[in-house]
User: What shape does this take?
Amino acid sequence: MAMNTSMRPARGLDDTAERPARDRAGFTVIEVIVAVLILTIGVLALAGTAAVVTKQMAWGNRQTVASTIAQARFDSLSSVQCATLAANGATTTGTTTFRNGQVTETWQVTDGNDVKNIEDKVFVHGLKDTLVYTSLIPCRDN
Assistant: This one.
């Protein structure tokens, strides 16, 4: 019996010298961590943007309520004859609340040269400032 005298390293001790280098498919742990970090930042940015958009939509809704109330006041006062609105330099005022006290409207009509000046202040709960709307009613009933 012939003995094989070639010297081969034991399996597992030095395999790299004998095997050709292969391309590895997939991602390294570092690449996965960086990708997750970038995705996390993106999702957090979207969540922050969603909060801002929600706040702006609520503000827009309150602004719409206030401008609708002011426009209704302007329309109702324009149907009244000028002689009865702030006659002879007097000032006509009024205050009304809407939506269970969530909205307060204060309006004032002052006499002008052939016009009536209307200032309508609307405070909506949830807004920092009172919204002020102004309009002029031309007097044609003289």
Q: What stands out?
A: The chain has one domain: 29-138.
